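Changelog-adjacent note: as of this version, every example in the card shows the full chain rather than a window. The one below runs 156 residues end to end.
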Amino acid sequence: MKYVNTIINVIYKLIVILFVEFTGLCNRCILYCMIDIDKLIGENLKRIRLAKGLTQDRLAEMVIIPKALISDTENNKRGIGKDIMSRICKALNIKPYEFYLEPDTPIIEDDLEKETLSTLREAKKFGIMVAEKIPEYGRFVIKEAKKSKTKKPDSL
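Full-length structure tokens:
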């Protein structure tokens, strides 16, 4: 079965390459969209899973799929279908679009980050530029924490 999937993927990639050659469409655009999408999904699955502090085994248990499927997806050996993606999204508490983000896109890891981002966006609607002060305040808090050699200062 593994060899059949590999053969199908090779044939699929050849068809895409031939399609690009005969239509004259942008090679990079077509190939990225058609071939590298599984790689992008796999990279994001691994990134999100690790950000949530989960092992492949634990995620597989949560989704009720073999661990090998998680591993193969993360290593770009096979893709996942809509059903499995939906189940993974539910288990990780994410939206499907997060599998298609560029690898350097920050992941919102918890409710506090989500609430902070929501508050910043709400403030921006009213012309209140709170976000500009956050890096300055963050550097101050980190500096104070280093002085006291603790993770965070006693009072903020």
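Structural remarks: The chain has eight helices and no strands.
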